[in-house]
Design goal:
By secondary structure, the protein is of the alpha+beta class. The chain is built from ten helices and 15 strands. The chain has two domains: 133 residues, Aminopeptidase (3-Layer(aba) Sandwich); 199 residues, Gcn5-related N-acetyltransferase (GNAT) (Aminopeptidase, 3-Layer(aba) Sandwich). The radius of gyration is 23 Å and the shape is globular.
């Protein structure tokens, strides 16, 4: 796009812009997804989103001689903020043609103005965007996960020595500094933790209760949410409409498994899991918990669900289950069960509280990164 002597216009995104925005994104440098994908994605963000309303700002765009040259979008999602359900604005899709890069900050400043009154979230900042967010009054999102628990299930059929090597290998790989310090001590600790895990899995297999995979999201999810929505001052809303929107209408989500735990026919916990590549393990795949939710503050409903997820993964040839610590409580639950908690890659996210709100602390926040802009 040659913008010499062209007038550049900054304005808000409207419904009439969607076809042109889909064309713009599909033909952006290095983009491989077609126009139809972007059309479907924008429909998912706004027209098909129950959190969207006519007064919600879709975002900002740049025009040069009537052609779109840049955009920055806002996606509405329902969130509990200061113990009240409200709509949050998720920042996404900041794209500007090279010839208009000098106007990029105009998009950002317009977005900040449009989003006043909404909690403003960004869970997928690039290094350049992260540097910008650190200079303006954004706060590190409290769910920026720095640790995760790992359940290791060596494949059946191998020798005892092969299992020991598998267990040692994954633990040494997951702690990058262990190789140069005390690898044998770490291997011994890993084996002790493995024995504890086997005791836990034996208990789970003896009393699993009603544990199964489902594709149906019904009123039982609303009843669970009504019993639990006040547990955390800041968290994603997990009613049936929210889950259906995120899981069944989302063209950008990975294939997922929705696993549930019921007692006496009533839903008491659920988890979203997906396969994900990992360089820590020679299989090249792990089973990642995208979200976990339970009505019990202790581990009585969560641990059987994790055991079921690990057994299901093992049946599909995946030996590692990963549980990001979306809240410190998850780390405590896993530690009591003897589940390993190594240091993981830091996932930095940012938020800007609405005017008059105070930043949230780790103990107040239970948010799934994948239900923010990174999963939309």
């Amino acid at each position: 796009m040659n913008t010499a002597d062209k007038q550049v216009l900054l304005r808000s995104i409207t419904a009439a812009d969607i076809p042109a925005l889909a064309e713009f994104c599909a033909h952006f440098p290095d983009e491989t997804r077609p126009v139809s994908f972007w059309q479907q994605r924008f429909d998912f963000w706004w027209e098909e989103n129950h959190a969207f309303s006519p007064d919600f700002p879709r975002g900002s765009l740049l025009e040069a001689d009537g052609k779109i040259g840049g955009m920055f979008a806002l996606i509405p999602s329902r969130i509990v903020w200061n113990s009240e359900e409200r709509v949050a604005a998720n920042m996404s899709c900041w794209r500007v043609h090279t010839a208009l890069r000098q106007h990029s900050m105009k998009l950002f400043l317009a977005l900040m103005e449009y989003a006043q009154g909404y909690p403003l979230l960004n869970t997928t900042p690039t290094k350049d965007v992260e540097a910008l967010l650190n200079r303006v009054p954004f706060t590190h999102f409290s769910h920026g996960v720095t640790t995760e628990s790992v359940i290791i299930r060596p494949r059946e059929g191998g020798s005892i020595w092969q299992r020991i090597k598998d267990i040692a290998r994954i633990h040494v790989n997951w702690w990058p500094n262990v190789q140069s310090k005390t690898p044998w001590m770490q291997v011994i600790l890993s084996l002790i933790q493995y024995v504890r895990q086997q005791q836990y899995f034996k208990k789970v297999s003896e009393d699993q209760g009603e544990l199964f995979e489902t594709k149906i999201i019904g009123s039982e999810f609303d009843r669970l949410w009504q019993r639990t929505h006040k547990r955390f001052p800041v968290t994603n809303v997990r009613g049936s409409l929210d889950l259906k929107w995120y899981l069944q209408k989302n063209p950008n989500r990975p294939p997922f498994d929705l696993l549930v735990h019921q007692k006496n026919g009533e839903l008491v916990a659920f988890g979203l899991f997906t396969k994900q590549p990992t360089h820590h393990w020679p299989d090249g795949e792990s089973y990642l918990a995208l979200d976990l939710w339970t009505d019990a503050p202790d581990d009585e409903n969560l641990l059987p669900l994790l055991g079921y997820a690990s057994n299901l993964a093992l049946k599909n040839g995946i030996t590692v289950l990963r549980i990001p610590h979306y809240h410190p409580h998850l780390a405590q639950v896993c530690r009591r069960a003897g589940i390993t908690c190594p240091i993981s890659k830091i996932m930095t996210s940012y938020y800007l509280p609405p005017q008059g709100s105070l930043p949230a602390t780790d103990s107040e926040t239970y948010c799934s990164k994948n239900m923010g802009d990174s999963g939309l």
